[in-house]
Structure formats: C-alpha cells, structure tokens
Amino acid sequence: MQEISKGANVSLTALSEDAGAVVVSLSWSSVSGAGDADVSVLLLDANGKVRSEDDFYFYNNPAAADGSVQLLGKTPTGNGDEDRIGVDLTAVPEGVERIVVAASQYGGARFGDLDDLRMTVADRSGEPLVGFSIHDAGVETAFIFGELYRRGEEWKFRAVGQGYETGLAGLATDFGIAVNEEAEEPEEAGNPAGDPGEAGLGAGAMEKAPDAEPEPVAPAPDPAPSPVTAPAPAPAEPVAVPTQTRGRGPRTTTTKKKVTLPKVAKSSLAENDSWRPARLFPVPTLKSDKEREVRATSVLLSVMAQVPEFGRRLTAAFGAPAGRMQTFTEVSLPHGDTPRRPDGVIRVERAGKLWTALVETKTNGNPLKPEQVQEYMDIAARRGYEAVITLSNDVALEGAPMVDVKIDGRRKHKVSLWHLSWAEVAHQAQMLIRHEGVGNAAHAWLLQELLEYLRHDQSGCHGFQNMGAAWVPVRKGIEDETLASDDPRAVEVVESWERLIRQVCLRLGGELGQKALPVQRVRRGSDPRARRAAAAERLCLDGRLTAELRIDGTSSVIAVTADLRTSKVRTCVDVPAPEGSYPLTTVKRLVRLLAEAPADLHVETLVEAGNGPRGTLERLRPEPGDLLPKGGAAPTGFRLSLIKGMGNTRGNTESGFIRSVDEAVARFHQGVVAHLGPVEARAGRQS
C-alpha cells in the first residue's frame, strides 16, 4: 500500500487493474472509547457544487439509487472504529467530477479528541491501494479526509485533510447545500438549553447561497481541464442537513420514499392460537443438517436476487459492483476427477463485466471445513472468480481467520475470502424493513419472511450459539480455583466471549435502528492476539469476562461483566452530573428519568474520593436525597447497574449463558439507558 501526504495525489488505475470499484475506509480511535464521527459523501460537478440534494449521502441517505455510492457502516477494530464506503466508479454519472469524503462530529466534540485519523482506499478485491493519515487535527468539528476525482479516463485520489470549525453545516454550505434550520424541542426543567450535548447543526447553522465559493483545498499538480461553454447549472435545492441531535433520533428527511413494516403486527383473523399463518419458506419438515444448509442457502440467495437493496447491502462489503444480480444453488464445477458443488453462486453484471462469488454454507453450529474452502478458493482462482463467501453461525473476529487457506502468490488473479454470520444477515434484513426502508411493500414482505425463517427453531440459522468445548472446563476450573493462569483454553473462552458480544451488538442494533459496536480501549496497531491473551490471564485471576459496547450516534457506553465465580451478569453505565446544578435537583431529576426503570436497579453516587451512597431504585424513589454524599460533597456522577443470574450451559438454550447475556443487555438498554434520554452516559467501571 502506498502512503501519501497531505495535498498529494495518485492514480488509482496505476495502483490496481481492479480499481473500477473501491472501498474507502475512514478510521479513528479513542482511548476513552467514546469518540465517534459520522461519514458523509458529496458528489460535485465541474463547478465544485452538488447538482442536487441527491448528491449528498449521510446516515439518513446512505445509498445512491444507481449504486455508485453506498455507506457500508461502521466496523469495530481492535482499538477503534472503521467506517467504510463502497464507491462504484464505473457507475458514477458523467456530470460528477469529484467525490468528496468527509466526517463530522457532534455534541461539541472535536477531531483533535480522536487519535489515528486515517483514510485508506482499497480495490474491489479488498487489496489496500493508498493510505493517508491526518496528524494535525485540533478544534475542527468536520473534516474532508480526501477526494476521488476524474482526470480524463482515469480516477485519482487526493489526500485533502481540510478541517472546519463550523461542523457539517459549514462544510455542506461550501459545496452548494442550503442548510435548513430546525426548531429545537423545548427542554424540560432542570436541563439547560444550549447544552452542547443537546444540539448540533440545527441551531445556528446559516444558509449560504448555492454559488458560494468553497474554501481552498490543497492544489493538485494536475493541469486544470480546458474550459467549455455550457449552461450554468441549476441551483441546488435546499436539503435538510442532519441536526445530529443524538438520543432522540435524527430529524432529517430524505427525498426517497421507502417502505418499512410496523413493529406491531396487524390483528390476526385466526379463530384461535392453534392456527398458524402460512409462510413462504416452511421449515418444520427439515430433518438433517444437509437439508437445512440447502434450504437456508436457497432462501437467502433468492431473496438477495429479488430485493436489490438487500442483495447490494450484503455484497457491497465484499467488493461486488452495483448491477443485475443472479444467484444459483448446487452448481457443479470441475475439480480434478470429481466435480465440486458449492452451496451457492452469486453473479453480478455491470457494464458487461461479471463479478462472481462462490458460497459455502453451514447451519446449526457446524464448523466450516478448511479443506473444502481451500478447494473453492482454488476453483475460483482458476475460473477467474472474484470471491469465496463462507456463511455460518460463527462470528468472525479481527486477527482470527475463520479458516486457514493457502494463497498461491504466483497467480495474477486474486480471490478474496470473506465470512458472513447468519446474525449479520438477520441484522441487515431487520435494519431495512424496520428502520431504513426498501423499494416496495413486496420487498419488505420478502425480507420479513426471510426473518421468520431464520428465527424458526428448525432453520439452524440462529447465529453464535455455543461457547465451545473449553467453556465447561474453564468455568469449572474457576469455580474450583484450579485453573492455571497460562491455560490455553482460557484464550478460547475469551474469543467466544468476543463473538458473543459482537452478536449482542448486532441484535441490539437491529432493534434500535442504530449500529451498536464493541469498544476496545487499546491503541491502534496493537495485536488482537496479545489483547486476548491478556484478557485470558485476567479471566484466570479474577474469574471475570468484561466488555463494553457503544450505541452508534450516542455517548452511551454499556459495560458488561460476566462473573463466573458468582454466576452473575452485571450491566452498568455511568451518568455524569450536570455542571452547575444543585445536588438535590440533580438526584431528583435522575430519579424522575428512571420512573419506568426496574425497581431492582442499583444506583451509586460517584464522588471525587471514596465511596458515595448507594441503594436500589425501589428504596430511593421516595427519598432521592439519600443519594446525596455525606459532608456536602458534590456528586460527580452516578453509576446505574442491573445484576442478573447467569445461565449454566454453554449454549443458547433457555438456561444457557449466551441467552442470559443477550437478555441482560437488552433489558438494561430498554429498561434503563433508553429512559436517560439526552443525559450522556459513559461506561460503568467494571469492578
């Protein structure tokens, strides 16, 4: 990968023969784990302006209808987040000369608070081509990381690194977008208006004329194109830039009408509960794992081909172009003396070119077979296919490949190996039909039927379900205090724990319509294996598995601790006390916010030194003043915790450990965090 500095540019065509579609990644890290930013993309014409509101892509307008741009969302890394954007350069309209990639922050946060700001561009196969790191971020609240631009028949990348103190509103208006002000909702008593955590661009964002000149960026060494005589472009229509008022959901509207399904189903016309609704994909007749694999593959691939938004969502991250998709099952492919039959094949046609991926499916917790995947990789390389996709209940981890395969470096044609979890499939379907919308009601119904199939007990597609063979001996060793600190089985348990937390994040994010991401409080570049080894050593010493997860777009960080010695799961969050507020007013307001929270919620007052008062919400409701520290000390915040019994079995049965952790996080968010509203919450100390 080529590293370039601020202001430099490079030809993508010169770096790769497969740069017709690229994946742009923006990444950052935060030692506190609370740092975050929102990605946006602007398509600009020869005048440096958007042609219309449709050229502005952000979290409420994540994809272009022609497939040229798609925001692929955040991916947790070992020490931060990576936000990816798929750009099909062959689909970019001719009138677009530049593609600006930017990010913005909210709630008074600045890019100087983040570490390791970086932009990379990879080709269709996932091979990194060029990277650019930003080292001079300070008070800026929005940043142009870089841009893709045309020069004749080729596309180039320029490292920009230009910041804005005026946030996304200032950046957007410079490119011809008129920002609409939106009235703020009235604040409730005790919550001062103007709190930087409450408002973003909506208040104070000024409208700017569409012909305003953009701020200068680093000059490109390429000669300017020859002037041409053409009619002046029509002014861009005003577009509502997202206010980024977090905790209440974005108030931005988009021009594209989308269909979503209501959360509450229509009343049934059945005479009694014994009547079962007819399903498009029945499952009760499945008797073997082979039947489950065949049925699950066919169901998924058929829906991907029929619902373009869904098929594109699953394949864009794997380097597939936007185009006409067809899917196949049980295809026979030559391989030595005996043909091989991958479970499925995905083909996408774009501008006369084909992108092909072989699919290998496992259900019911069955592991992938390395030798089988290796054969498909060899077949794909010989036939010029682009990818092999493995699909199972397991969840991929950074730095821990699902299967080990050998890549023949002598082959010019590269084949990418990707993994997809059934939990990720369900998450993407739920995000589309519950929150983001699809093209029509028939597509929404197809996705709903797919979800019903995946959730059925007989489908075998339930996501991560088993803590592994090491779970029982490690847990018993902790209970008996006989587990050695260097027992390799502890690392296996830590890896299973990370997979579980990633799946919990997928399920929670699907319910909320926002991404939930694990938080890793380590520096960028640290070895994931070393991190897991350190966590395994702590597990052997104190018998605890710990994790933190953050809801994208909010400051809420939930800490989860599974204590294997006490068989308890603890979920907690820290709520800071507002500055300048009277202590009694603060504790009363907190108790009011938690009016619907569980009575067994533990509340602890945090003070600068020592321990503050604590008690259950049931006891504190009639006497909120009991939370005030002795001696008149001012509280610095409050720790809210729920404690739940831990399941005994390693699997996802009713009494299982996996189910108990999943339910603990869901109950804590729904019963506690959701009621905090605009109050910022940090991760509770895992003690």
3D structure, described in words:
This protein has 687 residues and is an alpha+beta fold. Helix content is 24%, strand content 24%. Helix 6 (422-436) runs antiparallel to helix 7 (441-455) and helix 9 (488-512) packs across helix 10 (528-542). The protein is globular.
Helix and strand arrangement:
Layout (H helix, E strand, L loop, with lengths): L1 E2 L5 E3 H4 L5 E9 L8 E7 L11 E2 L11 E8 L3 E9 L9 E7 L10 E8 L5 E7 L7 E10 L2 E11 L2 H8 L114 H18 L1 H9 L7 E6 L14 E7 L2 E9 L8 H14 L3 E6 L23 E6 H15 L4 H15 L15 H10 L7 H25 L3 E3 L9 H15 L1 E8 L5 E7 L4 E9 L6 H11 L8 E5 L7 E3 H4 L16 E9 L11 H20 L5 E2 L4
Parallel strand pairs: 1-10, 15-16, 16-17
Antiparallel strand pairs: 2-12, 3-7, 3-9, 4-5, 4-8, 6-7, 8-11, 9-10, 11-12, 13-14, 14-15, 18-19, 19-20, 20-21, 21-24, 21-25, 22-23, 22-24
Helix pairs in contact: 3-4, 3-7, 4-6, 6-7, 6-9, 9-10, 9-13
Q: Key terms for this structure?
A:
24% helix; globular; 25 strands; 687 residues; alpha+beta; 8-stranded antiparallel sheet; 6-stranded mixed sheet
In short:
The protein is an alpha+beta fold. It contains 13 helices and 25 strands.
Characterize the main sheet: 8 strands, antiparallel
Head-to-tail CA distance between termini: 42 Å
Structural class: alpha+beta
Number of helices: 13
What is the rounded Rg? 26 Å
Mean pLDDT: 81
**Uncertain ranges:** 181-240, 243-256, 679-683
Share of β-strand residues = 15-25%
Helix content: 10-25%
**Care to count the β-strands?**
25
Principal-axes geometry comes out as globular
